[in-house]
């Protein structure tokens, strides 16, 4: 029996020993990876959350347009990356919880509360995780731009910028350099800005994705950039941008915009 | 306290402990899952259907699937319909396990009947069927007991066409061309080349030509396919599923092939 | 455990205007444990060719000596200096000789090649561990931080950089990439090759 030979290199099996020769069972794998990359950057009074729109499995592109970034409220946008089915279901459940909150409290849930909610929801599935990396961007109650990033089981922290997904390793060091000014020394008597202006951030986001598209096969097709502006923040930087759309719902003051761009399709 | 180290849960296997002298098998195995043999959870597809193709065109959706249900490499059932109408606006096409698909058909039939009986002035369109199926498929995968299918859902309602995909993992997407299984590798590039950008201009005749030529390529290259297939169209006028069609194929070129196997000259 | 990550280390080369640059980190590790912060991976081959050898440290030494020997033999037999293109093929065939028991090195070559008119043309190339050549027009990367290097380089590099600008670009690319790589870092060395001089600078990096 050839199968036996391969597991029994040392001759005959011991008479009392159990040999593993039960029926071969192929275990169903409830997970897959659907590629793509997401990214978010916080500014002083704005937050930018972006993701490409390609969905793939292995070497096959399933669709060129499957959004990974979702508006939750007028001050919160969630980007989800990893196993698409888990991602979509997770967003659906977060939205359901936000709706319940709205019905109970007659207002939208604050960003930091959404962040904690997401951590609780992810950790609830600690032993059968949502295979998803989440990045939450938006405006805090104090009017500052914020980004929260999560791992699949709910560890999270507030940051100024974060990349996740297939091209995280390509994009994150670039952002370290351009957002945090890592390895750059300011000229004597000057200092690096703590917050970058919106036009600079948008340029960096687009450069990050064109770069990732160039060198990673799972990134491309389309780019969706959400911009969340704080109450009273200037819209000047967004005027005249190609393909911009406002998706604000309430009159609370915060405003949400989407910018759509093409990426290479190869 | 159990003083037998071998009962502490250390994995014992002669693959890496070939000279163990302790008579392991004679000791009681404490930590056994008594249900392990009783519950059949994981499965594999048994009687299977291959690719489903679907495209958007000017008037709606066109979908195709052949009539074969295979048992491994055996062409077991050669007159199986893999396109199924749901309500008045939707057709669902399936690859993968055919018994699971028949279960899905029953389930959808029940759903449609129930919706009809409620007489609430609403009818299920392709969007609703897609949402329903994605939840069913995702729920089953989450129980590690999947319905082993790739489903294509096409429909037309209220002047809008809809085309989507759901599979055994609960993965979903919409696109203007969809091909499952082998078709995702062989037919999808052909469909994309012909359809992408022309969704609003392609006529039914042109769409049929694209589908037919793609099915032909699949028949030539996919060993689990057959040259007998059905085409569904879902338009403003409703859903129609054609009678089985036969493909004209030519194998005379095979005579001229040289250089494989023993036939080297 | 992958043998390519046993000692860690990364190398990058970039093309500029009438110049090329090659740079590497200085770490030698034993998996996660750092051993040395002055382990050179880049070696001069001729006055205008430099060779980076990231990968298994024992093979770094072996290959450096092997290439020194083969380049010397070439110089003696041909009575002329080897050109970067030729050297790249020498590297490739040397590695392919060991196709089924390879050296665990992914070489990076940077140099200036002589044109018929007597000028100099920038040349960079890299190969995988069995010698598959990649001639790039912009930049090549190798080592444990390669994906990070690709990402940053794709964002920072632009054509026709002057030597000092190229130095800044390659340094920033390398430093920021290795800071996100656990197996690379602990300082860097950069060489910029121009037609009349070589600028070599050692950079301080994060030591964590």
From TrEMBL, chain A:
InterPro entries: Ntn_hydrolases_N (IPR029055), Proteasome_bsu_CS (IPR016050), Proteasome_sua/b (IPR001353), Proteasome_suB-type (IPR023333). Its main location: cytoplasm. GO terms for biological process: proteolysis involved in protein catabolic process. Keywords: Cytoplasm, Nucleus, Proteasome. Residues 18-28 have a biased composition (Polar residues). It is found in: Cytoplasm; Nucleus. It holds the Pfam family Proteasome. It comes from the Eukaryota. Component of the proteasome, a multicatalytic proteinase complex which is characterized by its ability to cleave peptides with Arg, Phe, Tyr, Leu, and Glu adjacent to the leaving group at neutral or slightly basic pH. The proteasome has an ATP-dependent proteolytic activity. Belongs to the peptidase T1B family. This is Proteasome subunit beta. It comes from Pleurotus ostreatus (Oyster mushroom). The lineage of its organism: Eukaryota, Fungi, Dikarya, Basidiomycota, Agaricomycotina.
From TrEMBL, chain B:
This is Proteasome subunit beta. One of its GO terms (biological process) is proteolysis involved in protein catabolic process. GO terms for cellular component: cytoplasm; nucleus; proteasome core complex, beta-subunit complex. Keywords: Cytoplasm, Nucleus, Proteasome. Belongs to the peptidase T1B family. Non-catalytic component of the proteasome. CDD domains: proteasome_beta_type_4. It comes from the Eukaryota. It is found in: Cytoplasm; Nucleus. Pfam families: Proteasome.
Automatic annotation (TrEMBL), chain C:
Its main location: cytoplasm. Coiled coil: none annotated. It is found in: Cytoplasm; Nucleus. It holds the Pfam family Proteasome. The keyword Membrane does not apply. Keywords: Cytoplasm, Nucleus, Proteasome. InterPro entries: Ntn_hydrolases_N (IPR029055), Proteasome_beta_3 (IPR033811), Proteasome_bsu_CS (IPR016050), Proteasome_sua/b (IPR001353), Proteasome_suB-type (IPR023333). Component of the proteasome complex. The 26S proteasome consists of a 20S proteasome core and two 19S regulatory subunits. The 20S proteasome core is composed of 28 subunits that are arranged in four stacked rings, resulting in a barrel-shaped structure. The two end rings are each formed by seven alpha subunits, and the two central rings are each formed by seven beta subunits. The catalytic chamber with the active sites is on the inside of the barrel. Component of the proteasome, a multicatalytic proteinase complex which is characterized by its ability to cleave peptides with Arg, Phe, Tyr, Leu, and Glu adjacent to the leaving group at neutral or slightly basic pH. The proteasome has an ATP-dependent proteolytic activity. This is Proteasome subunit beta. It comes from Pleurotus ostreatus.
């Amino acid at each position: 029996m050839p199968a036996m030979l391969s597991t029994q290199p040392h001759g005959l099996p011991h008479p009392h020993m159990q040999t593993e020769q039960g029926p071969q069972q192929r275990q169903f794998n409830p997970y897959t990876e659907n590629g793509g990359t997401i990214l978010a950057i916080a500014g002083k009074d704005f937050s930018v959350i972006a993701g490409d729109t390609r969905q793939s499995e292995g070497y096959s592109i399933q669709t060129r347009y499957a959004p990974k970034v979702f508006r939750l409220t007028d001050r919160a946008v969630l980007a989800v990356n990893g196993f698409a089915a888990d991602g979509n279901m997770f967003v659906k459940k977060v939205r359901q919880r936000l709706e319940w909150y709205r019905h109970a409290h007659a207002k939208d849930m604050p960003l930091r509360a959404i962040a904690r909610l997401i951590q609780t929801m992810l950790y609830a599935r600690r032993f059968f995780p949502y295979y998803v990396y989440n990045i939450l961007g938006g405006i805090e109650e104090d009017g500052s731009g914020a980004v929260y990033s999560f791992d699949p089981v709910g560890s999270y922290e507030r940051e100024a910028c974060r990349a996740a997904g297939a091209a995280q390793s390509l994009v994150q060091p670039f952002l370290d350099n351009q957002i945090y000014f890592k390895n750059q020394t300011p000229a004597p008597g000057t200092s690096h800005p703590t917050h970058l202006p919106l036009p600079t951030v948008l340029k960096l986001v687009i450069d990050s994705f064109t770069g990732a598209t160039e060198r990673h096969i799972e990134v491309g097709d389309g780019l969706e950039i959400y911009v969340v502006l704080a109450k009273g923040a200037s819209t000047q930087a967004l005027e005249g941008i190609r393909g911009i759309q406002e998706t604000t719902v309430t009159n609370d003051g915060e405003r949400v915009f989407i910018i759509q761009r093409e990426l290479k399709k190869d | 306290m159990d003083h037998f180290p071998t009962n502490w849960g250390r994995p014992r296997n002669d693959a890496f402990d070939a000279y163990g002298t302790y008579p392991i098998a004679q000791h009681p195995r404490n930590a056994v899952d008594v249900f392990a043999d009783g519950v059949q959870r994981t499965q594999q597809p048994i009687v299977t259907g291959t690719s489903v193709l679907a495209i958007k065109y000017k008037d709606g959706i066109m979908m195709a699937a052949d009539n074969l249900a295979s048992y491994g490499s055996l062409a077991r059932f050669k007159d199986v319909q893999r396109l199924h109408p749901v309500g008045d606006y939707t057709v669902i096409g399936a690859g993968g396990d055919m018994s699971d698909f028949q279960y899905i058909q029953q389930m959808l039939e029940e759903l449609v009947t129930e919706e009809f009986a409620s007489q609430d002035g609403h009818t299920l369109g392709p969007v609703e069927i897609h949402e329903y199926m994605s939840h069913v498929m995702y729920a089953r995968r989450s129980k590690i007991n999947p319905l082993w299918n790739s489903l294509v859902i096409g429909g037309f309602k209220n002047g809008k066409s809809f085309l989507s995909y759901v599979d055994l993992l609960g993965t979903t997407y919409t696109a203007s061309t969809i091909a499952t299984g082998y078709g995702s590798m062989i037919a999808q590039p052909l469909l994309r080349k012909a359809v992408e950008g022309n969704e609003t201009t392609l006529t039914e005749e042109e769409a049929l030509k694209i589908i037919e030529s793609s099915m032909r390529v699949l028949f030539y290259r996919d060993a689990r396919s057959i040259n007998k297939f059905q085409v569904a169209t879902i338009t403003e006028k409703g859903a129609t599923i054609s009678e089985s069609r036969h493909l004209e194929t030519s194998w005379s070129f095979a005579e001229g092939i040289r250089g494989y196997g023993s036939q080297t000259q | 455990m992958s043998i390519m990550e046993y000692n860690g280390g990364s190398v990058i080369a970039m093309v500029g205007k009438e110049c090329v640059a090659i740079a590497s980190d200085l770490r030698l590790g034993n998996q996660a444990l750092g051993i040395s912060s002055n382990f050179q991976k880049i070696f001069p081959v001729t006055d205008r060719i430099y060779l980076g050898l990231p990968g298994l440290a024992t093979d770094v030494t072996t290959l450096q000596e092997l290439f020194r020997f083969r380049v010397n033999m070439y110089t003696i037999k041909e009575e002329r200096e080897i050109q970067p293109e030729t050297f790249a093929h020498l590297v490739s065939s040397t590695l392919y000789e060991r196709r089924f028991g390879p050296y665990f090195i992914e070489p990076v070559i940077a140099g200036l090649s002589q044109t018929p008119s007597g000028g100099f043309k920038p040349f960079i190339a890299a190969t995988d561990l069995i010698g598959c050549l990649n001639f790039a027009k912009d930049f090549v990367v190798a080592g444990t931080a390669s994906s990070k290097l690709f990402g940053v380089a794709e964002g920072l590099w632009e054509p026709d950089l002057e030597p000092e600008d190229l130095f800044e670009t390659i340094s920033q690319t390398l430093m920021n990439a290795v800071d996100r790589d656990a197996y690379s870092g602990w300082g860097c060395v950069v060489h910029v090759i121009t037609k009349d001089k070589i600028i070599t600078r050692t950079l301080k990096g994060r030591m964590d």
